[in-house]
Amino acid sequence: MRRSWKGLAAAGVVAAPVGVGVVYAAAAAVGLVGVSRPDGASGQRVARVLAEPAVWESTLWSLWVASASTILAGAAALGTAAVFRGPGRLDRSARSAAVLPLPIPHLVAGVLGLLILGQSGLLGRAAYALRLVQAPADVPALVYDGWGVGLILTLAWKEFAFLVLVAWSALAERGAALEEAARTLGASPGQTFRRVTAPVLLRAMLPAGVAVFTFILGSFEVAALLGPSDPLPLPVLTLERYTDADLGRRSDAFVLALLGIGLAALAVGGHEWARSRWPDLEG
Amino acid sequence: MCRASVLAATSYRRRWKCRTQRLALWSVGLLALLSSTTACSGAPAPPPAAEVAALQWDSVLSMARGTTVAWRMWRGDPSINAYVDRWVAPRLRDRYGITLNAFPGQGPEIINELVVEREAGVSGSADLVWINGETFSNLRAEGLLGGPWAHRLPNAVLVDSASPVISRDFEQDPAGYESPWGRVQFALIYDTVRTPEPPRTFAELADWIRAHPGRFTHDQQFTGMTFLKMLMYARAGGVEAFQGGFDEARYRAGSARVWEWLDEARSSFWRGGEAYPPGVADLHRLFANREVDFSMSNNHNEVVTKVRQGILPPTARALLLRDGTIANSHYLGIPYNAPNPAGAMVVADFLLSPEAQLEKLRPEVWADGTVLDVERLPPRWRRRFAAAEADPRSLPRDSLARYARPEVAPRYHERLSEDWRARVRRGP
Amino acid sequence: MRSRLRLLMAGVVILSAALPFAVLAVGSVAGEWRWPALVPSAIEGDAWTATLAGGTRLGPALLYSLALGLATGVLGTCVALPVGRAIAELHGWRRHLGAGMVFLPVAAPPIALGTGLQLTSLSVGLGGTFQGVLLAHLIPTTGYLSLFFVGILSVWDRRAEDEARTLGANPRQVLTRVTLPMLRPSIAAAAALGFLISWGQVPLTLLVGRGRVPTLPLEVFGYVQSGQERFAAAGALLLALPPLLALGAARLAARDVDVVPV
After folding, report:
1. CB–CB of C222 and B28 under 8 A?
2. How far from chain centre, in Å, is Cα A122?
3. What are the residue ranges in chain A where pLDDT is below 70?
4. Which of B38, B77, B112, B298 to mutate to test the interface with C (most CBs of C within 10 A)?
5. pLDDT tens readout for residues C46-67
6. Average pLDDT taken over every residue of chain B
7. Superfamily classification of domain C47-256
8. What is the rounded CA–CA span in Å between residue C154 and residue A282?
9. Rounded distance, CA B409 to CA B169, Å?
10. Which is the CATH superfamily of the domain at B187-327+405-425?
11. How many CB pairs under 8 A join A and B?
12. Averaged over C79-105, what is the pLDDT?
């Protein structure tokens, strides 16, 4: 009993700053604090912001980008981890290379995305050198584009390094031993993969995937560099309102911040709920 | 044996846990200690800027000696940073015993910072802020600037106060709450090789855009919105129609002409007018890489520094539209809660000196226009200013003056951005 | 056939890792590098000469960020280890609740976190200070690392400790000879990953540091915003190199890495 109280208290201390953020954002959203002179609480701003179609388009668009980049990075990480898990030289080189981008900050990844994927970027210039295109306009638009292709590719590339590291760790740490045990008990290679390797990877990758998903949903550095102007990615819209020339609109940003925290909390809650339904593999 | 080992394991685990918990306590304690050292160093409240301004200048100088001035400014251009850090700062240290500490932050951030500081009830973090237009208007409306003080600076007499571009900041009277620092004028940027015969008016520009689909756009921030405001002046009766404060009816009539022009030209914009570069730096990148044939800048001389930095091609030049281009000034303010207003005033005064204004004007330094009335300076200064302005890539002073149009009330800018975002950027 | 496919995949992985570093290296000395040039047509070393001569703030910012990152990594590990241990000992819904709670600071948008922290940090006199930004960086870091240690300690095999004890080791010996050596790779990995979280941080530093805390990512951010690609690339290389060393250290312990997104 005491022990469970302690564990939750410890978790509460770590989570407390989020509480501070939520309380402040809520107070600012209803006009108790903030830039425009507070004159009593009112839910009008919340209602007005949430009634804007642009807000929901931005939300859906950011959810699309976060899902697509997480799935792309996750699939690439799974494939790479499964293919290069051996002790050979090629495997080791691939493993070392794959994690190299890990320390590159997202901001720098965004700049690289612009320099490489922009219509006049290095990819387009290579196409020009190969006489595939005549001018930047002939190159497919991958940045500032409606589907966020360049943004998704850039984020997937950046998160791939992290996810592949998680996948390899899981395979090395638990996967190998459990696979060995399964084979000893007479499981076929297919069964081993289905019943052991895949669940081990999924378990390790899911929390990492949720962390990547929520991170992408909330980070503005890359989205501001590569995202379209319509719809604006949700974090970019939040920042645009936070720095609006019209002081009266600045507190709109806190409604959007609450929306962002709410989405993140949903993702985390959903993840814990999914985990609670799994049989305990570790025993 | 089994039981014994379990017991031993439990006691061991408890010990191990104690150790880690102690470690955590130590870290938390250390942080508390670190924070208390800063939290407890509360100094008596500094005198407000207006009070300092009432003193003799010699007393201000002696108050400022040995202090540090924290200057919140835009830090994104290495040329400007080099001027501030390597030219201004050493001179302030040698002559006035002032340590200059420039740190980043621009318009909206400055307001948010000061509002948060007011909510927290703490002493300010900046002594000097670099502002103009809507930032000044918002800061004044919120009572976040100290003053009046600017008229007390010894060098203030040299300022070209006859010019409406300097004596009025977006139609507002600075009223001594900000001191002018530099003056710039909007210009389009084009490449003399790619576009030897550039359009000279908005009407010609519209024809050019339709004849060259996909080769023109503007950014989503301040520079792009200034372009649209100039378009509004040009299409709806000139700047005079919008002077004398914000007027909803005049705004509606004027902005309608802007949307009309955009509706005709926009489908021939870059990406069919469905996407816009986020900031003017991104527009420069598109221009330099031949994605579009025009860029733009609020500073007619930016093309000179950007060519020198290799960001724009050597054949890039500035271009003034004959319908008139917006000229404005940028200023220095002292926040209401500045810890060191005396030091801030000395810095603002030094920045107004002919020496500092000339250095700033030189194309190899920053190429920022002067706010001084050069004609009233002694001849040797006049000659030097003339020489600095003689760069072949810069625009001649007389044509700048001919096409200069002042800013109007900041509310026009706010409304135009807001409506552009909702009507144009959001698409049909 | 299969080995050829593997070779191709390895090539893609290695190229995609190496190309960005090459682009940054070339970009940091590119005088003119415009469409359609694949390589710069002129070399300009001002970003590096200015940095070496103290003409940019990249050098001091690098040292500042190093100190901040090391402090974040060490302190974050010290706090997260017992928190992770406490949560790992929970069962049932409490465990999921605990894990979900420490996940929140990781998942919450930094802009949303930072705006609230801005006022709090100012009120207690920490706004715009090293300590304030350190505390701000510790928020996502302790979240990440607590999750990390929950993962490690949930599968923590206590049999080795028990065996040592049955063989007559006293608790102190168990700690120094068995437990710490077994956990050391995880602790090292945690510290390295905590370092990385602080190292790349932009929004929290901006909002709590209030422009007065000159970290390397903020300097690079400024150059990026104003289109100074040569300076941005030089700063980006400075950002990428030290963590590569840290990564080398973390890789020694890579088998323990679990829930640690960066």
Report:
1. no
2. 26
3. 1-3, 34-40, 279-283
4. B38
5. 999 988 888 788 899 999 999 9
6. 88
7. MetI-like (1.10.3720.10)
8. 8
9. 9
10. Periplasmic binding protein-like II (3.40.190.10)
11. 68
12. 91
